[in-house]
UniProtKB/TrEMBL annotation:
<dbReference type="GO" id="GO:1901890">
    <property type="term" value="P:positive regulation of cell junction assembly"/>
</dbReference>
<protein>
    <recommendedName>
        <fullName>Flotillin</fullName>
    </recommendedName>
</protein>
<dbReference type="GO" id="GO:0002020">
    <property type="term" value="F:protease binding"/>
</dbReference>
<dbReference type="GO" id="GO:0016600">
    <property type="term" value="C:flotillin complex"/>
</dbReference>
<dbReference type="GO" id="GO:0045807">
    <property type="term" value="P:positive regulation of endocytosis"/>
</dbReference>
<dbReference type="GO" id="GO:0070528">
    <property type="term" value="P:protein kinase C signaling"/>
</dbReference>
<comment type="similarity">
    <text>Belongs to the band 7/mec-2 family. Flotillin subfamily.</text>
</comment>
<dbReference type="GO" id="GO:0072659">
    <property type="term" value="P:protein localization to plasma membrane"/>
</dbReference>
<dbReference type="InterPro" id="IPR036013">
    <property type="entry name" value="Band_7/SPFH_dom_sf"/>
</dbReference>
<dbReference type="InterPro" id="IPR027705">
    <property type="entry name" value="Flotillin_fam"/>
</dbReference>
<dbReference type="GO" id="GO:0005768">
    <property type="term" value="C:endosome"/>
</dbReference>
<keyword id="KW-0967">Endosome</keyword>
<dbReference type="GO" id="GO:0002090">
    <property type="term" value="P:regulation of receptor internalization"/>
</dbReference>
<dbReference type="InterPro" id="IPR001107">
    <property type="entry name" value="Band_7"/>
</dbReference>
<dbReference type="GO" id="GO:2000049">
    <property type="term" value="P:positive regulation of cell-cell adhesion mediated by cadherin"/>
</dbReference>
<dbReference type="Pfam" id="PF01145">
    <property type="entry name" value="Band_7"/>
</dbReference>
<keyword id="KW-0472">Membrane</keyword>
């Protein structure tokens, strides 16, 4: 069976399988019926009104003190929760509050006994801190934490605090009267001192004004001299600067003229160079080109003529060789024919053969002279010149 509890409550499950017991602060847990047991303990903040009546202080004065304390069981601290469960399990919230109240009251009474009425009344913060510190150490051992403690009231039945107040009031009134008289006396003294200081200050002021006027006049005279000197120096410096400026302007003008003349000379030199280049481009170079062209043309014509002559000579030689070969072949053919005829004419006489040879000589001479009669020009090339051309 599931059980739940809020954040202001803790559950403790004990029994079978729960050793040590399981403690849950705000949550849920499953409990087996009959074999496990669940118990609850409150985690609410408890407000305690701690009263200590007629407690004797260190000087034997009985006073009553009332303080307000806020305490609670610390559920987030497992050790303190376990301690609280051991001490308060099964107790109601009022019973737990009563135990904590009695503990706080005991510590409060003990601290009152070690202090005087004046210490408690005048320094309540110190008293509250002592009670909080001492009580917290004991309540922590019970699993309870002290959230806060404040001293609410201090009174007595012997009018000690009232008498203490009267004495303090009388002392304050006395101090006030004495203070007022001292203040009036000091006021009169201060007023006299103030008047004296005023007169002295007035005299000093007049003296200082006279000194200032004297220093002013002296300084003004010195400043006037210095100003006039500076003005004269300034005027002289101005005139000198004007002269220097004029001289510099003239020098710069001369430099400009020199630069302009230099530029004119440079432009003239460039114009001369341009004209020379133009002349060279328009006259010299075309003349050189024409000269070179004519030289090359003449050389080409010479080479052409030489080559034509060589070609013509070669043609004539080859033609002559061909005609000679043809004549030689024809002669061989005629010789063979004549041989054959000679064999055929063995029966003729020698006179008949001579007669036939004479008859053929004109024809042979005519055939030999035909190639020479066909040539129009015969050139004999110079061998040295031919070698140089090649």
């Amino acid at each position: 069976m599931f059980y739940t509890c809020g954040p202001n409550e803790a559950m403790v499950v004990s029994g079978f399988g729960r050793s040590p017991p399981l403690m849950i602060a705000g949550g849920r847990v499953f409990v087996f019926p009959c074999i496990q047991q669940i118990q609850r303990i409150t985690l609410n903040t408890l407000t305690l009104n701690v009263k200590s009546d007629k407690v004797y202080t260190r000087h034997g004065v009985p006073i009553s003190v009332t303080g307000i304390a806020q305490v609670k069981i610390q559920g987030q601290n497992k050790e303190m929760l376990a301690t609280a469960c051991q001490m308060f399990m099964g107790k109601s919230e009022q019973e737990i509050a009563q135990i904590a109240l009695e503990t706080l009251e005991g510590h409060q009474r003990a601290i009152i006994a070690h202090l005087t009425v004046e210490e408690i009344y005048q320094d309540r913060k110190k008293f509250s801190e002592q009670v909080f510190k001492v009580a917290s150490s004991d309540l922590v051992n019970m699993g309870i934490g002290v959230v806060s403690y404040t001293l609410k009231d201090v009174h007595d039945d012997q009018d000690y605090l009232h008498s203490l107040g009267k004495a303090r009031t009388a002392q304050v009134q006395k101090d006030a009267r004495i203070g007022e008289a001292q203040y009036k006396r000091d006021a009169v003294i201060r007023e006299a001192h103030a008047m004296q200081e005023k007169v002295s200050a007035q005299y000093k002021n007049e003296i200082e004004m006279a000194k200032a006027q004297r220093d002013y006049e002296l300084k003004k005279a010195a400043y006037d001299v210095e100003v006039n000197t500076k003005k004269a120096e300034s005027e002289m410096a101005y005139q000198l600067q004007v002269a220097k400026t004029k001289q510099r302007i003239e020098e710069e003008t001369m430099q400009v003229q020199v630069v302009e003349r230099t530029q004119q000379i440079t432009l003239q030199d460039q114009e001369i160079i341009r004209k020379e280049k133009e002349l060279e481009a328009k006259v010299k170079k075309p003349a050189d080109a024409e000269k070179y062209r004519l030289e090359k043309l003449a050389e080409a014509q010479r080479v052409q003529l030489i080559m034509e002559a060589e070609a013509e000579a070669e043609s004539i030689r080859m033609k002559g060789e061909a005609e000679a070969f043809a004549l030689e072949a024809k002669g061989r053919a005629e010789a063979e024919q004549m041989a054959k005829k000679a064999e055929a004419f063995k029966q003729y006489k020698e006179g008949a053969m001579v007669d036939m040879l004479l008859e053929k000589l004109p024809l042979m001479a005519e055939e030999i002279s035909k190639p020479l009669s066909a040539a129009q020009k015969v050139t004999m090339p110079n061998l040295l010149e031919r070698c140089w051309i090649s």
